[in-house]
Amino acid sequence: GRLALDTPLPRYLPRFTGDRKGEVTVRMLLDHTSGLPAYREYFRLATTREQAESLLYAEPLTRAPGISAVYSDLNAMLLGLVVEKVSGESLNVFLGREVFGPLGMTQTRYNPPASLWYRVAPTGMWHGRPSAGEVFDQNAVVMGGVSGHAGLFSTGMDLARYARFWFSGGRLRSGGALVKSATMAAFLQPGARSGTRLLGWDTPDRKEEQPTAYGTLLSGSAYGHTGWTGTELWLDPANDLFLIFLTNRSYAPRMGRSIRELRAVRAQLADAAIRAAGQPCLAQAATPC
Fold first, then answer.
1. Average pLDDT over the chain, rounded to whole?
2. Distance CA 205, CA 190 (A)
3. By the 8 A CB rule, do 38 and 71 touch?
């Protein structure tokens, strides 16, 4: 009850002011209809977290709030700051206690210690040597490695626990409820102008002519998210199936269009997973799944 989706963002973050920013809500950050640009290189101007936050708060909108959805790292960065403001503690501490701990996600964390770097896939090169265990995103680096848009390290098994949690409607494996089922359901409802975006999730774009990361066989209830370094998680409740695909695409790619090539791989993998699971429940099926 301490955070409402349709509350104007300045209520929680008073420094987020100017233009029509008073119309931006928490919901608009989650479905990317805030009107903020997709990306800004704050790390080129900021050397501290405070400086990066000041640039973020001062960022002007590029379109009217609530009109259309454009994915933005800035939305996720602000969401992380909202959580910190409402909870009164850092994002990594809050998530560790309220999410990762209850779900048994013991390998998921920000800023893994050097003693664990040998287990982390490298995501970039630094002075000719592989860089592993440090966040790849430079804006997140300036934020101290902890941000709402980047910096989280995890494993396939931990993400499987997270996927099962969504399939359960917010219940723990022990039987208790961590999140109200109505809240979980609300995050999976599309907005009137959010396009393919749900709250914090994306859905397959059925109008896209090129192969999407979700392939062609997922049902209409499928949702998921991808990551810049080559990660992906999607869930398809109608087919009782989720897929976790973790790569380090950003690590010394040997082709100039590695994002596009990975997109094609993801599409093929998604369709292969559906076929391997048995008779698919197609989005275009004549009868309801």
1. 94
2. 13
3. yes
Three-state SS sequence of the chain: CCCCCCCEHHHCCCCCCCCCHHHCEHHHHHCCCCCCCCCCCHHHCCCCHHHHHHHHHHCCCCCCCCCCCCCCHHHHHHHHHHHHHHHCCCHHHHHHHHHHHHHCCCCCEECCCHHHHHHCCCCEEECCEEECCCCCCHHHHHCCCCCCCCCEECCHHHHHHHHHHHHCCCECCCCCECCCHHHHHHCCCCCCCCCCECCCCECCCCCCCCCCCCCCCCCCCCEEEECCCCEEEEEEHHHCEEEEEECCCCCCCCCCCHHHHHHHHHHHHHHHHHHHCCCCCCCCCCCCC
**The pLDDT value given to residue 211:** 74
Which pLDDT score, from 0 to 100, does residue 256 have? 83
Answer for the pair 50, 42: CB distance below 8 angstroms, yes or no.
no
Asked if residue 288 has pLDDT above 70, the reply is: no
Q: Dig out the tokens for 39 from the structure.
A: 């990306």
Residue type, 251: Y
Which two structure tokens, joined as six digits, stand for 96? 């560790």
Question: Other CB atoms closer than 10 Å to residue 111's CB: what's the count?
Answer: 14
Q: Is 130 exposed, middle or buried (0-12, 13-18, 19+ CB in 10 A)?
A: middle
- Residue among 81, 77, 65 nearest 23 (CA): 65
Confidence (pLDDT) at 287:
44
Q: Which residues pair with 252 in a beta bridge?
A: none
